[in-house]
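re: ur question from the group chat, yeah i did fold both. here u go
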Amino acid sequence: METEKPYLDGDLNLLKLSDRVQINAHQLSYLLNNGFQENFFYFVNKYRVEHAKKMLIDDSFQKLSILGIAFESGFNSKTAFNTIFKKMTDMTPSEFRKRMI
């Protein structure tokens, strides 16, 4: 996940990720649920939010809109991005950017 960053693909799903790690989807789901105590979507979105957080505080991305950062982080909509980001950080992406700068 950290080296190849498959989470940046907005179309990533359990089957695609299982193909990349060369185990079947059922095994990957079991591993995530029992090994990490996370479902697939939470597991992937955790990486996406961390990526977005880095972009939100990086000066080289200051001209990029929140929506642009959402798409660059693998999210497919601003609503999903805002909802998941707030759930994981207790603040919106805009609030995070303002607080960290």
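okk and heres the other one u asked abt
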Amino acid sequence: MGDTPLIMWGRCRSGRRWFWVASEYEGGQAHGWADTRDEAARQGNAAAVKLAAGRYANIEILHGIADEHLKRLNAAKRAAQPPRSARTGVKPPPNPIGYLYAIEPGRWDLDERTWIEGGIVKFPITRKTPRRIYYLRRRTLFATGPEWEPGYIDRLELESFGSVRVPRWFMVFAEPPELPDTSRPQPRWHQSAPTPDLKALKAAMAAAHPDRGGTDAEFIAARRRYVQARDRHAA
């Protein structure tokens, strides 16, 4: 009797279908899905008999093993998926049916010395219905990488007014809009203004330190203002 294999099979719900599994103790396994509970039972029992392979075996019904096996399968499936941040990116279609347009304004870089020109950006249209226009837009203003997300706008509003207000990008247009003046302005520290007081800026930087109740972001910004003013004084 010690050589008699123990084989168990069971079934459980899996969404709208039924999951079944047959498993030999310290041996092989088989699993699958069926449309009905009875069909899952038939397939699970047949798989158990197949695992016995003509041997005398103890075959038992234990539905709990189906639950446990399905949980392990789902966990392995989740682990095999890329991180969520990598899955949210959407690639633009190679041949869109048209474009929407938005304005990316010019801006100073964080160093306040490098001017980044603005321009017109294009968002590919993926589908049109009588009520909506579906398109892909960059996920953030001033994005540095090809990160896209799906969106849609009211088709009647766009065709009536030529533009529609959208999150982050303010407006999208049916046709390329006239680009506003994006010529390089004077940086703030070149404009006529009182010379910054280094002593006051240093005190503000100290007051913004996290040890004194400030935040990391506040301290970094205060330190940047102080260092830039100090460098200008030294120039």
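fwiw on the second one: Helices lie at 37-52, 64-80, 84-87, 155-161, 198-207, 216-234. The chain is about 30% helix and 30% strand. idk if thats what u expected
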